[in-house]
Amino acid sequence: MSEQSKPEQGRSKQGAGKRGAAKRTATERNTTELARLHVKKTYKLYVGGKFPRSESGRSYAVTGPDGAELANAALASRKDARDAVTAARKAHRAWAAQTAYLRGQILYRAAEMLEGRAGQFTEELSAATGKEPHETLGTVEAAIDRLVHYAGWTDKFASVLGGANPVAGPFFNHTKPEPLGVVAVFAPQDDPLLGLVEAIAPAIATGNAVVVVASEAKPLAALSFAEVLATSDLPGGVVNLLSGKVAEIAPHLAGHEDVNGIDLGGVEDAALAAELEATAAGTLKVVRRPGTAGSSLDALRRWVEYKTVWHPAGMAAGVGGGY
């Protein structure tokens, strides 16, 4: 073999090696693209600031208006409801003791986080309701506005609902609104995000902790909203969110002795609503009946009770001395 032919053979082998490497890279890339699977979201409960599955291990299929399966959601049990009430009671005292300013800042932060994920919620609501994206975007924006609205009420409602009372005597008499404690909320069935926000925002703005049962047929946006709350500095347990069958969960919440109020706005079965109201009366709960409307101030007033304080302003005449 001549000396001249050796470099030519080397170049030929080098070119063949490059072509082989290019083929291998293309093959590996195609293989990777074929093997890439879409990571489907797992929709869990939100209890005590954590995202557990149902203790029963059950789930149910959530479908869109066309019958197509969207995802699986956890099917909450009686034990999950009890755990949620326990978490809410544990969180309530510290939440009620926070300053009104801080509660307002946290609600405003939730609005900020929801604004940042508006695209995701628009898609989830469109899939759940069958509405066009521009319609569901309006719903998401309305939910953001509600959070901002109630954030502004946190340091004002006490002045509006309370105040000094005129009395005939040497006393100061003041009335102050205080939170009920733990409120169970059944979110509207056909308004899975905005209705949810309108139900829970006034309750937590006034210092309550809540246990929420999401829309039974359309729970996905509500379960995603729990992720917004989890990243908004809201203490764990202030909001606890369950998904599942209203008829299964509701009786346990209505009869629970550690629940102080119950919002039946999302209970569409009139017979079930009447039964729940009767059960709630056994433990003297405040009840909001289905179909009850009102202003935002009415919504705030619904979940407070009033504490009146008497303070002596001076001593009786002839005794001497005074404050």
What's the gist of this structure?
The chain is built from 11 helices and 10 strands.
Key descriptive features of the protein:
323 residues; alpha/beta; Aldehyde Dehydrogenase, Chain A, domain 1; 5-stranded parallel β-sheet; 3-stranded antiparallel β-sheet; 49% helix; globular; disordered C terminus
Q: Sheet with the most strands?
A: 5 strands, parallel
Number of β-strand runs: 10
Number of domains: 1
Order of helices and strands: HEEHHHHHEEEHEHEHEHEHE
- Specify the number of helices: 11
CATH architecture, by name, is 3-Layer(aba) Sandwich
Task: Classify the beta-strand content into a percent band.
Answer: 15-25%
Looking at CATH, the homologous superfamily is Aldehyde Dehydrogenase, Chain A, domain 1
> Which residue ranges are poorly predicted, with pLDDT under 50 across at least 5 consecutive positions?
316-323
Shape: globular
CATH-defined topology: Aldehyde Dehydrogenase, Chain A, domain 1
From the alpha carbons, calculate the radius of gyration and give it in angstroms. Answer: 29 Å
> Can you give the helix content as a percent range?
40-55%
**Structural class label:** alpha/beta
Average pLDDT metric: 89
As laid out across the biggest beta sheet, the strand order is 7-6-5-8-9
N- to C-terminal separation?
120 Å
